[in-house]
Every structure is written in C-alpha cells, then in structure tokens.
Design a protein that fits this description.
3-stranded antiparallel β-sheet; 4-stranded mixed β-sheet; about 290 residues; alpha+beta
Length: about 290
C-alpha cells in the first residue's frame, strides 16, 4: 500500500525566531482550505465543558489563560490573506479574553452544544475561546473551544493540564523564556528544503490519485448526494477473544498494526460488496515524525 512520504530530520533543532508571520504548514493549509470551503462548518471545533461545583476565582482563571496564551503562540495565531497566499500571523502576548455570563442549570447541555456549533473566523479571531457561566444553582460552567488548526488531541490534553496547574498555583502572568513555537518549526523545515519537498510530495500524490474513482459503488439504501454533512455515528463491536488474538498475530507477522489489518479487511469488504477494483479510503492520522514537534 502507498504511504505518505516521511519528513527528514535536520541536523539542528529549530530555535525561537520571534517571527510574527510564517507560511502555513501542510496541516494548517488543509484545515484552512476546508474552513474557507465552508465557513459555517464546526467539524474541526474541539470543545471541552466543565461543570464546576466548587468555588472558582475568575481572575485567577483569567491569569492562567493569559499565561497559556503567552506560552503557546498557536493559541494567538490568526490566518492572514496576502498577495502570496495565506500566512499565519502571531498576535502579541495579549491575554485570551475570558467571556463571563449567567445561565440556568437546566440549559447547560444546550449551552455547551451552542458553543460547540459556533464557527471560528480564523482571519479575525484567535482559534481558542473561553467562556465562564455562573449558573442559577451557585455552580459554574466553563466552556473551552479550540480549533483543530491550533491543536490536536495530544496538545489539547497538554493545554488542559497546564491550565489546571497554572490556576492551582495562582501565579500572576510572568515573562517566560522564549520557546520554540509552531511557526519556528515551519520556518525551520522550509529552510531545510521542506517547501520543495512538500511540492514534490504533492505532485507524487496527485499522480497516484489521478485515475482514482470519484465515487465508490455501493448498494446504498438512498441516493447519495454531493452535499457535505457532519452527520455520523460511532458503532462499537466487541470481537471474540480468539479472533482478536488472530488479528494480533496476523499484524505481528506482517510487521504492521492491528488497525492496518482491520483497514485492509474493510477495504476488501467494500470491494467485494460494490465490485470496486480500486478504492480510495481516508482515515484520520495522528503522530509526528520530528521529535521536537511533540
């Protein structure tokens, strides 16, 4: 099977540059394209909601958020459109604004969903929002939303851990030593030939997918359309122990993962049901090849 080309590591690690602009990384460019394709989409909003029953200090929380914004430039990066295309624009170390409000306890599910369904304007606003609502029963609802262009599952967990630690310490926002930011890594990769390599990789993929079928043939129970939809579902299936052991053994024998074996089986099933000799299947990918980008 065809796999994505790997990035090559440079001899020296990237250093803080203090740059206020940088090209978009391939991941940022993909997400930016999808957001401009449908500005109302919230498919890449990553929400977190916390119902807080104990006392909370809003000023202390604001300080924690301000320190986070100083520490992680991705949380204060907007997309700027220029004559040469989109760039990432790093805003100064101004704090993330904690929006305050009041609400009814009975409405917390709806409020969390409304926040989740509010799109980001990545040209105008930062890709991170924080809202603290005082509820009528004396508790609070903290809503945090970050766009996937600024974070992934691993980094969201890191952000939440750091926010909790900063809040618990109660420290005022302090000047921290410069750290390597996401834009620094992009500039470093471009300096090492990353830009030309990405162009070659793109050409290779376009060539590979040139004759790919535009749509899979399957016996659908309704007529498919080209309209985009975020509707979906998750189906959990428990495999018998003997089958799970067989899958692990097959994966080990092929020096791959159980996921890859299952994906191959899924592709074979789609090909058999629909009579498709050639398939294009997209799956989420997580992981970073260059250690410094963790």
């Amino acid at each position: 099977p065809q796999t994505a080309p790997e990035n090559t590591a440079h001899a020296h690690a990237p250093q803080p540059t203090g740059a206020k602009t940088a090209p978009l990384s391939p991941a940022q460019a993909r997400l930016w394209f999808l957001q401009t394709l449908d500005p109302t989409s919230t498919a890449y909003n990553m929400p977190a909601a916390f119902h807080i029953e104990g006392p909370i200090d809003p000023d202390r929380l604001q300080n924690a958020l301000s320190t986070l914004a100083k520490r992680h430039q991705a949380l204060r990066t907007r997309i700027e459109i220029t004559a040469d295309g989109p760039l990432q624009r790093i805003d100064p170390d101004s704090p993330i604004q904690l929006v305050r409000g009041m609400a009814n306890r009975a409405d917390i599910a709806r409020l969390a969903l409304d926040e989740r369904r509010t799109p980001f304007d990545l040209e105008v606003e930062r890709p991170f929002r924080a809202k603290l609502l005082d509820l009528d029963d004396g508790t609070c609802l903290l809503l945090l939303t970050v766009h996937h262009i600024a974070a992934d599952g691993q980094s969201v967990a890191l952000i939440l851990d750091q926010m909790r630690a900063l809040y618990e310490s109660g420290a005022e926002p302090a000047q921290e030593s410069p750290v390597t930011g996401y834009s620094d890594i992009v500039l470093w990769e471009d300096a090492g030939g990353g830009g030309s390599k990405r162009a070659k990789d793109l050409a290779d993929w376009l060539d590979l997918l040139r004759d790919a079928p535009p749509r899979i043939s399957l016996p659908f129970d309704r007529t498919p359309t080209d309209a985009r939809s975020e509707a979906g579902a998750r189906i959990r299936v428990a495999l018998p122990q003997h089958l799970a052991q067989t899958l692990r053994a097959r994966a080990q024998g092929a020096e791959t993962t159980v996921f890859t074996v299952l994906l191959a089986g899924f592709a074979a099933a789609l090909g058999e049901v629909g009579g498709n000799a050639d398939l294009v299947i997209g799956v989420p990918v997580s992981g970073r090849i260059v250690a410094v980008s963790y």
